[in-house]
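Our working data are protein records whose layout never changes between entries. The record below serves as our worked example for the rest of this section:
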Amino acid sequence: MQKTLGTLFLLGIAAYSAACLALFLLQRSLIYFPPAQALVRAPQVSTMTVPGAVVTISERPRPGTKALIYLGGNAEDVSMSLPQLDDAFPDHALYLLHYRGYTGSTGKPSEQALVADALRLFDRVAAAHAEVVLVGRSLGSSIALQVASRRPVHKLVLVTPFDSLAGLAARQFPFFPVRWLLRDRYEAAPHAPRVRAPTLVLAAGQDEIVPARSTARLVARFAPGVARHEVIEGSGHNTISDSAAYAAALRWAR
């Protein structure tokens, strides 16, 4: 009996180790979910050559000083946000980044690569427009926050943001050492104190993915007076943009 229990224990350890290894190797397929195609035709589409890839940008051109860059969620077809942004920001040129490996873009996504691509896009847009608004949603909120901590963003909007992807993953996989295994950690909170742009944080009142305390911890890291926190009641993580209150809140960044 003792030998049998020992064997079962060793088999359990082996199975757990194999599961940890699989989680480590497959983690990016659990983070990034590229959509099959862009469902909304943009007025203009451009490309940007970056190290190891060519990424696509859906654009709505406008002359003048004002521009907006949109960074979407981990499973988002960013072209779907074009009509709403077109309505909320009629005077802004719009630039919606399709991440590496997403519709129209080559390469493979990773935190380091996506942040680098967003910085490169900001520099390109800022060369033509003096006032650049940055909007990041869900995963894109962490990318936007990292850009805003390094570049002179005019205004920053974070939609359903979190303080740490590693923290969210640990909540989803409580029996695994996720904080040790995760390569793309998206630790947003440490970047918040360096942001100087006026910032609007929009949370979903019934967010089933990002706990309210995660967003609250992020907001608390901004310097006093920089960030304002609004909750869109009656909305979930993926439905917040369906709310009329969300559309109205976006206009703050005009």
Remarks:
- The radius of gyration is 20 Å.
- The mean pLDDT is 89.
